[in-house]
Specification:
168 residues, mainly alpha, 2 domains, 78% helix, membrane, Phosphate-starvation-inducible E, transmembrane helix
Length: 168
C-alpha cells in the first residue's frame, strides 16, 4: 500500500503531541512568571503597612517555590523528562511554607509528628534514592539574538530533516 507507513504515522502523531505539550508548558511558564510578578508587587505594597513577619516569610518562600517549579518546567522543555528531585524539593519547601504561615505553636502535635515523618522520608529519598541527576548548564552562551538565531536554524534543520523523512 503506497503512502505513509504505520510507524511513520505514529512518529508524526507522537511529535505533534510533544509539540502541543511543549506549548502548554511554555504557557504555564508564562503564567508562573506573571504570578511571581504579582506576588512581588503585593509584597511591595505590603511594605507600606505594618510589618508582618509571617506574611513576608511565607510570600518569599512562595516565590522560591514558584521559581523551582519554573526551573522544573524549563528542564522538562529542554530534556523532556520530569526532575523528581526538584519536585521533592518543592514539596519540602511548600510544607515549610505552610508551617511558617500557620505558626508552629498553632499546629496539632500529631500533625507535627506526621510532617516530621514525611520530611524524613523525603530527605531519605533525596539522599539515597539515586534520583538526582546532575544538571549541566552551558557556560558559553551568546547574546539573546545569537541564541534565538541558533534556535531558528536548528528548527529549520529539524523541519527539513523531517520533511526528508516523510518523503522517504
Amino acid at each position: 500500500m503506497p503512502g505513509i507507513s504505520y510507524n511513520k504515522i505514529h512518529d508524526l502523531f507522537r511529535r505533534l503531541l510533544e509539540n502541543i505539550q511543549d506549548i502548554i508548558v511554555i504557557g504555564t511558564c508564562g503564567l508562573l512568571f506573571a504570578l511571581m510578578v504579582k506576588t512581588l508587587l503585593s509584597m511591595y505594597f505590603a511594605l507600606a503597612q505594618p510589618f508582618e513577619f509571617q506574611y513576608v516569610a511565607s510570600e518569599l518562600i512562595y516565590i522560591l517555590v514558584l521559581v523551582e517549579i519554573y526551573r522544573l518546567l524549563i528542564i522538562y522543555i529542554r530534556e523532556h523528562r520530569i526532575a523528581v528531585d526538584i519536585m521533592i524539593e518543592v514539596g519540602i519547601v511548600s510544607i515549610l511554607r505552610e508551617i511558617i504561615l500557620h505558626g508552629i505553636l498553632e499546629i496539632n502535635p500529631l500533625t507535627i509528628l506526621t510532617v516530621s515523618v514525611l520530611f524524613f522520608s523525603l530527605l531519605l529519598l533525596l539522599r539515597y534514592g539515586a534520583i538526582r541527576k546532575e544538571e549541566v548548564e552551558v557556560l558559553d552562551r551568546g547574546t539573546f539574538i545569537e541564541e534565538f538565531r541558533g534556535s531558528l536554524e536548528n528548527f529549520a534543520k529539524r523541519k527539513e530533516k523531517n520533511i526528508n523523512k516523510i518523503k522517504d
